[in-house]
Structures are given as structure tokens and as C-alpha cells.
Specification:
81 residues, mainly alpha
């Protein structure tokens, strides 16, 4: 039968491994989120370029609309609905 000191040490080591595993999982999730964000930014930039070629006044209209959207749209509220 293990002594209380050895049992405590093995419990600490188990907790340490669990914490490390959770940390690795969180790091992977953060990397996945960054990858998804980069992909979306790249796609958005491509869309803006295509639309600008098709509609020369798009850049100005987009800037104007962004100002309106910034005032009227709250992504935190919209995400929940």
C-alpha cells in the first residue's frame, strides 16, 4: 500500500498531466480559431476585390456602409440570436 506521501505525489503528477492536456487542447483550439479567422479574412478580401472590379464605386459605398453598420450592429447580441 502506498504511503500518503507517495499517493499525494502520484495525484499531483496526474493533475499535472491533466492540466498539460487541457493546455494543449486549448492551444489547438486557439490555433484552429486563428486559422478559421485568417481564411475568412482572405475570402472577404477576395470578395471585396472582385466586387470592386465589377462595381468601381464599391470601395466608397463599402466604407460608408461600414460606418452605418458599426453604429447599428452589435456582433455580441447578433451572435446569440
Amino acid at each position: 500500500m502506498p504511503t500518503p506521501q507517495k499517493l499525494a505525489l502520484s495525484e499531483i503528477q496526474l493533475l499535472q498531466r491533466e492540466i498539460e492536456a487541457h493546455g494543449e487542447w486549448l492551444s489547438r483550439k486557439e490555433l484552429d480559431r486563428k486559422t478559421d479567422t485568417d481564411r475568412l479574412r482572405t475570402e472577404l478580401e477576395a470578395l471585396k476585390r472582385v466586387i470592386s472590379k465589377l462595381h468601381p464605386d464599391f470601395a466608397k459605398a463599402f466604407r460608408e456602409e461600414m460606418e452605418v453598420v458599426r453604429l447599428e450592429f452589435n456582433p455580441e447580441i447578433e451572435r446569440r440570436t
